[in-house]
């Protein structure tokens, strides 16, 4: 760490702190002071120890903890990294994968904004009229092929866009899911629970406690109404026609599985529960989910999948106030009137149904049009930004 | 440089004294714990269950010959259970005893330190000698309690409205542990030094098991730990921690094995020590267990790197 001998230690440290802040670590003046203090105690030449000491000061979460070795080396030992890296922390394009992806996306966003304003889901939006014709299986791939022929580069980037997620984006999605979960209106129950500042006096408990003080109620016990959070079910369509959106849907579903203990199902021609996969955090799980979705891709039997969901999987849990979120474009290979019957059965349990569709407008699919009155709300969802926009409407 | 050498000694001393009481800390952890003491800052430890977060606090108390005060957090934990409570019964008794002499008892008399019941936080602050305060599983406590902790952790003081502010006579070493079931507030995180405890490396885990079970055969320990290390790379819902490894080796040792049993049926019967959910238990059949014992890491079509190459 002697590549900047002309600078005072505090200035060099400030540069390092700036790099850390660029990567989302909360390193303010207090932390910098503590780092200097640690350097004084530990001694500037004890690198291994200083590294451990600064890590303890600068990192505040597991994510930052894992990020640390790379950031430390990037600033203090740029020569150890492959390729040449400038000390400012900006790598050359193509060296660092995550930054390259970020940069690519930024470029793409700026380049794409003017021609596609107000059209967040280009493929499905344009394909919708073709697919209504009846053969959604044959129609959609053809239409997609057409789209990719007209804009080959865009298409490739778009698909990669859905696959590659940066950690901070996943974090943002998680936070958004938490906000939405907090807004989901809890169900009041008839029971009461003990709470310190409460609404009503728990007479029995108060009397019991007063025994210790010769019958004087010195420690009154209070109660408040007990509420239960609503059950959330997410049903994601992973059929061929939804292929390009499945990755987004599954990530959103996963965020809610973690935040709201939602049960997550995927369906194409049949329904499968993937909640246990969603609640774990490992690379192997992500591979499994990818494998599951890649394997899917024939037609979509929405009505029979919903029927199976209500009859078999969620029969006991579909109570009053349960929220069922269906993430689908509504193209059903079942008879179009079946969907209305299936949704009606769901509603009969007291569930509230919200339909998320990847297109701007409500899909024109015949089945969905026939079942509109059973669906509480339609919400367009083609990106995380769409979800953020409707977060106040979801309750 | 002089200070650096002094530090090195202190640092190494701490590591050695931890080792003497049976806790093998790596160099980074020892430095962090030592630094937390020097800077008088609390230390927040995160990591999966069973990696030795709580054990560090007990070992530190033992090594430093300090009193260990433990506050186990849970949902609904409040001030009365964590910091202090007035001893109402005693107060009433004092008033009744002096009933016949009017004017002899003033309000300040019954709201004095004598009538205060010490709960863990106050107890830690009012220790005269060295003290280690362990706030265990802070993520289980409510956010309101976390906010209350800020005063204690930043200034080592507790404000009792009737008495005033009670300052620590001897700054306790505070260790907070979290399993990450809930996100802690940024304010709390920024007041603490942070260390993420990961599962130990192969060599360290072998050393830990040997320290805890010196009578077990070296071959058994090495093979068993290697098996557990490979098992951790499997897709499990509950990854076995160090405590599970110790249990398992202890069980195998009790069954008079000197190495991992060749018979998979025997091995599988003891796996209850390591795998704690039904799903995991059914996921690991005899064939998979044999593969893990032999060290073949074939998953699907992709060959994974050997377990030894896993990051430390």
Total count of domains of chain B: 3
- Spans of chain B of at least 5 consecutive residues whose pLDDT stays below 50 are 1-5, 300-312
State the CATH architecture of the largest domain in chain A.
3-Layer(aba) Sandwich
The average pLDDT score of chain A comes to 74
Q: Tell me the domain tally of chain A.
A: 4
CATH architecture of the largest domain in chain B: 3-Layer(aba) Sandwich
Largest interface: A-B, 41 and 35 residues
Describe the structure.
The complex is a heterodimer of chains A (395) and B (312). Chain A has 395 residues and is of the alpha/beta class. Chain A folds into four domains: 9-92; 99-163, no CATH class; 167-182 and 230-389, 3-Layer(aba) Sandwich (Rossmann fold), CATH 3.40.50.410; 188-228, no CATH class. In chain A, 52% of the residues lie in helices and 12% in strands. Chain A has 17 helices and nine strands. Chain A has helices at 9-22, 29-42, 47-58, 62-76, 97-112, 122-132, 136-150, 152-163, 167-183, 203-210, 243-259, 275-278, 283-295, 302-313, 336-348, 366-370, 384-389, and strands at 187-194, 200-201, 222-228, 232-237, 263-267, 271-273, 323-327, 352-357, 377-380. Chain A has a six-stranded mixed sheet, with helices on both faces. Chain A is flat, with a radius of gyration of 27 Å. Chain B is of the alpha/beta class. Chain B has three domains: 2-77 and 119-196, P-loop containing nucleotide triphosphate hydrolases (Rossmann fold); 84-117, no CATH class; 202-297. Chain B is built from 15 helices and eleven strands. Chain B has helices at residues 2-20, 27-39, 53-63, 79-82, 88-97, 107-110, 120-125, 143-155, 186-191, 202-212, 218-232, 242-254, 264-270, 278-283, 286-294, and strands spanning 43-46, 67-72, 84-86, 116-118, 131-136, 157-160, 164-167, 173-178, 193-196, 298-299, 302-303. In chain B, the strands form four sheets. In chain B, strands 2-5-8-1-9 form a five-stranded parallel sheet. A two-stranded antiparallel sheet of chain B has the order 3-4. A two-stranded antiparallel sheet of chain B has the order 6-7. The longest helix of chain B has 19 residues, at 2-20. Chain B is elongated and about 85 Å long. The model of chain B is unreliable at 1-5 and 300-312 (pLDDT under 50).
